[in-house]
């Protein structure tokens, strides 16, 4: 018996690269024999030695190994009784050294750092039986530990290893037996018990009951017990890696216990890369316990190089425990129990018992070469699956079929059937059942209205659906139709089309539908290009999923309200129809619809009908489509800042209009802020909304007449236009006439010679460029001729058009003497004289002389104004005044008297 100890922080030797160099002997006394190895380590033998010849003889009590030759002992081997010194111990061959040192039943406690180490003979002689080791790993480094290194004729010891790592974030690999064999022979693994009790951490724990690899041997695996506790573990009952030819593998009957984390458990061989291999699997018990585990009863994987392999599997018992587990029975008559949560169970070849237990569980037959007939029973009652054997099925909700023709019959639960390739018959029975095409090799077309008859899906054979209410599409571009019932359809990946029905005529009121486009650019809704008609129903839930998705109801002619930001679909009268999630685009029907986007990039098509479309934020593409009467309206009513929209040029900027592209609109609605709006040559209804809004005609190709009182008098691009809540009008680059109403109008004439009529209200009239004629008319008006050298005329028809006193009289802001003219000749200068239209007498800046018909001006230097006054009745006071901005010296030629 030997006790092997390595303190925490020690550096253990790598015995695979270890050579004894006996040429460098450091000490040779009666109690100590010490030398330096080829790799620089220091070996010290403590015992009783004599030197009758070149080599010592005697006995050994301890072996001390200083791996780094720094004076600190890294590994101590203490023998329970004196061992005779063997020539192998100091022979200069690392294989013989380790054989002599560790051919004991060892007890070890290892706390060293990085470990790549074996506690067993490296080159045992033929028929050697390995040591029965018991030990604990408590180090803080990465471990790779083998119970014994083995060759042919070896029988492994029964080892007990406990892993309790100081740093649970570092990795550990433990093999019950050895690493490599090179010659033909027979090897038997020991019955090992290896347990990891380390605290929870990120370290990878790999435990194999027997050999890490083998070549051209007959191998008998031991009956091992491998257990994880707190960390993710990979447990393999027998050989993990096989290569070479003519290997016979007889697996042991192992017990594998997973941890509370996500584990991988292999009852027999995790990997095979050999030709001519004969594999006899053991009867293993695999317990996943907690976490989402993967359990293989037999061969975890066979590579493409494993030609001619012959498998005779064991009858395994797999229990997933808590978590969403995947269980592979593989070969043999296995018992699979998924445990709690949603598990996937592969029975494989043989007569298996497949029990999903708790959760929604799946029986998967996709690895079968033969079609299966599956009948699900209720709950724990036995159902059946006939294909690669005759299986018993319990507590299974979902079934995955083969690549050939399958027949599935559901129970009263909500089943999910994946037929796979082949011409499958899927009968859901009672409940809301799903046909899934997730595994299809190309896009599918599936119509739930075709029940009981075969339909060509395109990508997954010619299937017959019976009592199927729900669909899951493929990862490609699918076309999926409901049947007007309570359908749930998930498009999956790809650019899918999902509609309530494929009917081209009316169908009954649909139930509550749930549609999800999944990934891809999907089209989802009620109708598309003439397909799908009838009553829309209510309480639907539709989601576009990821991608750029479109909500459609193209064949419906009633009036609907779609709000992508509000995630809703209503009738305009307020009847709820559907919740809409994750849609970017809308394609509407033929009614007078209200269509609203969100702050993303939207593509909204009103199609037929007089629609109101509001893109909201984002660079939207908006199409009013056709119209029937009043036309389509482009709306920016909820924009948080003013917009500038030109229906003639298509330009859009500011607020929610930024980046928008639009077509097919007749009407325009601004925001609650200051907007600039321009129609086109058609009849436009323009609503400025709140704020001080401007309608401009700067893009027109000819002059316009805008008459806010008599629309019938409008001319040019203004013909047929109506204006609501518009405060400012700007003319074109031609000879325009802008005529106000009783409101306070603001007119800009624009370029060329314009006529501006304020009519009632306190108007602001700006002629701008050109020789303009400005008529303030009633109200207290502010008039500006424009900054140019041409004569602007300010024309009055009656004295009531401008009152007396500050706040009552009109103001001309830019009158230029000798250039502009004020025309007051159209009313009588003498209100008390005889008939006729008398002419004013301009008396410059002198005082009135109590003579009717006098016209004068006076300057107020303090105010910086000039006031024109007229006395019509000869009482020496002004009856009519006009205020000029600035101190202006007036002449009679500045007036038409």
UniProtKB/TrEMBL annotation:
Boundaries of every Peptidase M10 serralysin C-terminal domain copy: 546-896
UniProt region (Disordered), positions on chain: 606-627
Keywords: Repeat, Secreted
Cofactor(s) required, per the database record: Ca(2+)
Subcellular location, record wording: Secreted
Broad class of the protein's primary localization: secreted
SUPFAM superfamilies according to UniProt: beta-Roll
Matching InterPro entries: Hemolysin-typ_Ca-bd_CS (IPR018511), Hemolysn_Ca-bd (IPR001343), Peptidase_M10B_C (IPR013858), RTX_toxin/Mannuronan_C5-epim (IPR050557), Serralysin-like_metalloprot_C (IPR011049)
A Pfam family recorded for this sequence: HemolysinCabind
GO molecular function: calcium ion binding
Gene Ontology annotations for the cellular component aspect, listed alphabetically: extracellular space
Biased composition (Gly residues): 615-627
PANTHER family tied to this protein: S-LAYER PROTEIN (PTHR38340)
Name under which the protein is recorded: Bifunctional hemolysin/adenylate cyclase
Organism annotation: Octadecabacter temperatus
């Amino acid at each position: 018996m030997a006790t092997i100890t390595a303190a925490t922080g020690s550096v253990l030797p790598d015995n695979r690269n270890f050579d004894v160099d006996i040429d460098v002997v450091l000490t040779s006394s009666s109690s100590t024999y010490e030398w330096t190895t080829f790799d620089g380590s220091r070996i010290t033998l403590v015992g009783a030695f004599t030197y009758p010849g070149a080599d010592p003889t005697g006995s050994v009590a301890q072996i001390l190994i200083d791996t780094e030759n720094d004076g600190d002992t890294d590994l101590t081997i203490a023998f329970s009784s004196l061992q005779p010194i063997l020539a192998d111990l100091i022979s200069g061959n690392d294989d013989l050294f380790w054989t002599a040192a560790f051919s004991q039943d060892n007890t070890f406690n290892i706390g060293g750092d990085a470990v790549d180490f074996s506690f067993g003979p490296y080159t045992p002689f033929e028929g050697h039986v390995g040591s029965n080791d018991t030990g604990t790993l408590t180090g803080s480094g990465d471990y790779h530990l083998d119970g014994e290194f083995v060759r042919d004729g070896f029988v492994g010891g029964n080892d007990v290893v406990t892993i309790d790592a100081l740093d649970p974030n570092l990795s550990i690999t433990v093999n019950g037996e050895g690493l490599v064999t090179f010659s033909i022979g027979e090897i038997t693994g020991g019955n090992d018990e290896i347990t990891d009790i380390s605290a929870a951490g990120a370290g990878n724990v790999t435990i194999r009951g027997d050999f890490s690899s083998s070549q051209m041997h007959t191998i008998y695996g031991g009956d091992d017990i491998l257990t994880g506790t707190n960390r993710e573990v990979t447990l393999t009952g027998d050989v993990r890696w096989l290569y070479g030819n003519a290997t016979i593998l007889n697996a042991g009957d192992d017990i594998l216990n997973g941890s509370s984390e996500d584990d991988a458990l292999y009852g027999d061989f995790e990997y095979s890369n050999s030709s001519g291999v004969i594999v006899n699997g053991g009867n293993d018990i695999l317990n996943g316990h907690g976490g989402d585990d993967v359990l293989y009863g037999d061969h975890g994987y066979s590579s493409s190089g494993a030609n001619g392999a012959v498998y005779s599997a064991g009858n395994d018992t797999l229990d997933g425990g808590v978590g969403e587990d995947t269980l592979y029975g593989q070969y043999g008559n296995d018992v699979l129990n998924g445990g709690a949560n949603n598990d996937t169970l592969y029975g494989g070849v043989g007569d298996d018992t497949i029990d999903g237990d708790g959760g929604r569980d799946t029986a998967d037959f996709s690895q079968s070469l033969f079609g299966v007939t599956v009948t699900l029973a209720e709950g724990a009652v036995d159902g059946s699956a006939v294909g690669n054997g005759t299986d018993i099925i319990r507590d299974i909700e979902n079934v995955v079929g083969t690549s050939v023709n399958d027949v599935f019959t559901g129970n009263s639960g909500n089943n999910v059937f994946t037929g796979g390739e082949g011409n499958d018959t899927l009968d859901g029975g009672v409940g809301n059942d799903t046909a899934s095409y997730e595994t299809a090799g190309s896009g599918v077309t599936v119509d739930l209205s075709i029940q009981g008859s075969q339909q060509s899906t395109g990508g997954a054979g010619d299937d017959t659906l019976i009592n199927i209410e729900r669909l899951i599409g493929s990862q490609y571009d699918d076309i999926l139709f409901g049947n007007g019932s309570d359908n749930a359809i998930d498009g999956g990946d790809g650019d899918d089309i999902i509609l309530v029905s494929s009917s081209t005529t009316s169908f009954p009121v649909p139930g509550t539908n749930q549609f999800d486009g999944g990934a891809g650019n999907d089209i989802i809704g009620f109708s598309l290009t003439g397909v799908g008609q009838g009553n829309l129903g209510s309480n639907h839930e539709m989601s576009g999923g990821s991608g750029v998705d479109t909500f459609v109801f193209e064949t419906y002619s009633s009036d609907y309200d779609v709000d992508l930001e509000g995630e809703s679909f209503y009738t305009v009268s307020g009847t709820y129809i559907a919740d809409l999630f994750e849609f970017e685009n809308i394609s509407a029907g033929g009614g007078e619809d209200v269509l609203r986007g969100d702050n993303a990039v939207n593509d909204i098509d009103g199609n037929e009908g007089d629609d109101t479309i509001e893109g909201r934020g984002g660079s939207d593409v908006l199409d009013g489509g056709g119209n029937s009467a009043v036309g389509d309206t482009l709306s920016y009513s909820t924009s948080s800042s003013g917009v500038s929209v030109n229906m003639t040029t298509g330009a859009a900027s500011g607020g929610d209009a930024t980046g928008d592209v639009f077509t097919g609109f007749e009407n325009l609605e601004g925001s609650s802020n200051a907007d600039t709006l321009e129609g086109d040559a058609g009849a436009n209804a323009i609503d400025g909304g709140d704020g001080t809004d401007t309608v401009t005609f700067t893009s027109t190709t000819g002059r316009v007449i805008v008459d806010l009182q008599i629309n019938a008098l409008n001319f040019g691009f203004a013909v047929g236009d109506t204006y609501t809540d518009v405060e400012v009008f700007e003319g074109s680059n031609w000879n325009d006439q802008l005529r106000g109403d009783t409101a306070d109008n603001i007119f800009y004439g624009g370029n060329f010679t314009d006529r501006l009529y304020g009519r009632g209200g306190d108007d602001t009239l700006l002629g701008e460029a050109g020789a303009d004629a400005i008529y303030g008319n009633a109200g207290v008006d502010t008039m500006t001729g424009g900054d140019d050298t041409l004569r602007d005329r300010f024309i009055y028809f009656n004295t009531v058009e401008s009152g007396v006193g500050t706040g009552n009289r009109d103001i001309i802001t830019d009158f230029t003497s000798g250039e502009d003219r004020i025309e007051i000749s159209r009313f009588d200068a003498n209100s008390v004289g005889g008939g006729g239209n008398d002419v004013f007498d301009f008396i410059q800046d002198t005082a009135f002389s109590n003579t009717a018909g006098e016209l004068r001006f006076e300057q107020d230097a303090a105010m910086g104004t000039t006031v024109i006054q007229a006395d019509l009745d000869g009482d020496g006071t002004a009856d009519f005044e006009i205020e000029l901005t600035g101190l202006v010296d007036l002449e009679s030629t500045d007036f038409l008297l």
